[in-house]
Amino acid sequence: MPPTSSFDFPATLRTWTEVARDVAIPLGPTEAELIQRAELICQRLDDEPIHRILEEVRADSDAVELMHALGRVLEHAGDSPAESSYTRVWRAYELASLLSWEDDIDEGAEIRGQLGLIAWRHCRRFKTYREAREWETRCVRDALSQDHVRDFIALPGQARSDELNRRYFSDSAVLLALCRKLQEERNNNFSWVAIEASLAFEAMERLDLPAVAEERAFFMASAAVSAACGFKYLGAYRVAMRWLMLARNKLQTVVGSRSYCALVDFAELVLLQEFHDFRAIAERVADVRQELVVCGLDWQVACADLLRGECHKEAGRLDQAIVAYREVAESPASAGDHLLRGLALLNAAEVSARLDAGVDLSAFRVAQAVLEKQPAKWPLAQLQASVGEFLRDSGRVRGAIEAFQGSVSLYEELEMQSKASYVRLLLAEALIAAGRVSDARSEIAQVLRAAEEQAVAADVLAAVSLLQQALERVSTSNEYANSRRLQLLRSLLRAEK
User: Fold this and answer.
1) If DSSP states are collapsed to H, E and C, what string results for 236-272?
2) Nearest to 231 by CA among 246, 253, 217
3) Element (H, E) at 107
4) How many Cβ atoms sit within 10 Å of the Cβ of residue 351?
5) What tens digit of pLDDT does each residue of 440-484 get?
6) The whole model's pTM is what?
């Protein structure tokens, strides 16, 4: 059906032009005018009450544009050690926090996020780790309050195109939020962290983003440490060490990197524990701990005390070890941290069991109750293995077998094959003690298959060899419960652990 009317665009345009010829159409202030006005506000931030500035900005029809301009004026404060520059930024952030606008894209959050980023940048470079962390928290909160930022970070790294990465990796507030998420997920979602941190590092390197090389180096170092943590949990210890080396290399060009270098030092000590190199840990742990103290890294200081306890335990100084563990469990750092406190209680329970064979499972139950309050599942697998060793040492072999089986199952569910393989060896030993030689052979065979497929740690293979020799002796002597032989095997396994 033909149209009943038509629209003559040229004629309409001519009519509109004639009507509007003498009408003044408001175009808004120019960028230069906004910058000039923002500079005046910046000067007033030095000593004028915020509420007075707030009233004027609220009444300004250009308030949003003016606050964006204020952020551009204050940008240099992130590069300057001057206290006056920093003061202006946090007062500007306070001003932005008191303002609100009705908009669909939440420009208020974007403005606060950018001001918070400037303050974080200044503190990271020229102030303490604690102050930088406080501003990081504010910046991340404001960034994640924007729907489009949350959607981007929720995307798997493999699903992000280079075009999308260019858009978002140009904004350091987004990268700060991404790196914070990687940090927070290290202990309970490490498979995801290993992949996502690796992809983020590679994308920043390939795209040269963010544009400022020093800041890019910081974010790449942060992603590298997260990748190292993820791969450590997965048992890829040498891969994790390479990531820590990359992090250290990137930090060489970062201003104010002392605290972050201390974090890398500590991460290396934790990795040395996986290599069972307690001599190297003992040589370095005091110096690393002191550096963590100086940098105000209280949580890591408590974790270093856990490592000191491990060194005492491995050296046979059990009385000193249990004191160290109990001090961590009672420290302020572990007061609100169920993971740290639970691990300290678990280690204390293990040492108590070694010191007194007559103790019961109550200390392990206390540790379990704490560990169940946090999201990471691997500590529960570690606890089951520890309970298994306690039951084995107290002669309850059937209960030990069940505990070891539960530990293996959980470690495998978490894809922690190296840990699963070690506990399988403890399970095989318990099965030998119970006279279940065929089942023990089956467990050892699974460890060997995992060694071929997953490249598990060399010390696990050494322990496999010990168990195979024990199996041969068991088969020829038919003495399943020779306690002296099993005790010797146990000591050898502990040396290989």
Assistant:
1) CHHHHHHHHHHHHHHHCCCCCCHHHHHHHHHHHHHHH
2) 246
3) helix 107-126
4) 23
5) 889 988 887 777 666 555 555 555 555 655 555 544 444 444 444
6) 0.86
